[in-house]
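Revision sheet: structure tokens.
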Amino acid sequence: MDSAPRSAQSPAPIRALPDTLISQIAAGEVVERPASALRELLDNALDAGSTRITVRIAQGGLDMLSVEDDGCGIPPDELPLALARHATSKIASLADLEQAQSLGFRGEALASMAAVAEVEIVSRRRGQPGARISAANGRLGEVTPAAAAPGTLITLRRLFHEIPARRSFLKSAATEAGWCIEVFKRAAIAHPQVAWSLWQDGRAGMQLGPDSSPLGLQRLADVLGKSFAEHALPVDARIGPLSVHGLVCRPTAARARVEVQQCFVNRRWVRDRVLAHAVRAAYADVLHGALQPQYALLVELPPERVDVNVHPAKSEVRFRESQAVHQAVFHAVQRALAPALAGRVAEASATAAPGLATPASREGRAPQAPGLFERQSGMRQGALSLDTVLQAYAPLEPGPSAWVAEAPSRDGWAAAGTGIDAAARGAPPADAADALPLGHAIAQLHGIYILAQNSQGLVIVDMHAAHERVVYERLKTAWAERGLPTQPLLVPAGFAATPQEMGAAEDNAETLTAMGLDIAPAGPASLAVRAVPALLARADPVRLARAALAELAEFGSSRTLEQRRNALLSTMACHGAVRANRALNLAEMNALLRDMEATERSDQCNHGRPTWRQVSLAELDALFLRGR
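Predicted:
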């Protein structure tokens, strides 16, 4: 009995914890590291209406961290309350919390910092005297007069110095400094109207003046760097009360690992799976393999439609209509990536202004040139006609919507007529080529590449990759115009469903029908698939249904069926595109260039590879040492 644990013999009585210990426990949720404290201080400075904010850190914020602003300031009699737990000027009722418009609103950040560090606040409200208050490890000092400029200066020293166990979990000073700099950058991106200064260990770091450019895109380019800005395309879309703007990089700038993936909701940086999924879906048709897109997006919507009180660090949110937000972000990014070359300024030249490309008009697309599918007698090489390709998927029985997914036979492909519609579209006059993004063809290289001349210099086109994208986009357009025919199953495919799947099927019945899926309850814990999209008739209906329901349950939207349909169309396009080692004449090459200019996403093939490259005159001059 003597060796038994003490707790088994005489449990400790329930008792109230000391206030200091309560504050230190609460601080662990709010102040995880110096960067967490910096984020909270920046939120307060921005809520105070500051136009200039200066951040200073020493030893990664472990020794010292300060934020100085020119905001509204704090009156002397309110300074003790600023360091009290759950004291704030930003909310007064549950209604205020449900539509919080301030970045900080919990009223516990400064109190949490005072429980684990030495804190000093010097503040002055305009027209009032300045004052100072300090606190250390939960002990509050007296308010004393102080000379100060209008605004507030908050300084933290010796973070976690009295709590060695917590401090031992922190990283090196360099690593902690990196996290602080990242928080600084995020705040600077979200608030371009504010001037920012960063000092690290007494040395000047980033200095950013206020940005007056439309949508604050110049600030994005300044903070994220030249390499990001050189490949960036602007996003600007408004759908009802929701707006999406920012920058997304071209697919050719994707990286093997995440470098820049920033999302902000109502000027608050967040880590949200709905937004990340929407962006990834927008890149799905143009991104190669497992590469990661690079982007920085700011989403604005009414505060009552998003819950920001989800996570103590305020880095997660919950949308009231997650599907609407998903679709808004998806379409905004997709439009930024999709414009045809003819609808935007040629921008690949190394001599062009770095960074921000001209966004394509949202009023409409460039006029579609006659396609490469149209047969012309006497032409030597080209694509399968659209009718020929779709005939390979003709119904077994007559009927406009009885399409089935039958693979075309080898003979069917061989028997198809070919020919590029180039008779009426020969090489343009030299003086007209300057207005064409891809210029006019001058030669074919090894039966693989088209060489063209434009006003910027030399254009090199991978003819198979380019034609594959043209064919693919035409197939998708034709399919969309014909609608989404469904294929009823002779025997419904039933499966045991989880409660989440049952709920997703009930909540998204209309969405599933629009996707071509007919899913109905077959019992209290089972579902039955009664129809699928005709083009996917050979796929496993249960796997299709479960994949769609899983996405609907998590993101409020699903692209599973569209992705599988597009994969089949992509395969068809690959078979229909011009092959390597096929000789094309100049008229045929120019026809392909004009089709590329009028086709969305023509910068990448169906597999995410680039279809063309620009070599500027400056680069050519450098190769031959001209001007030296």
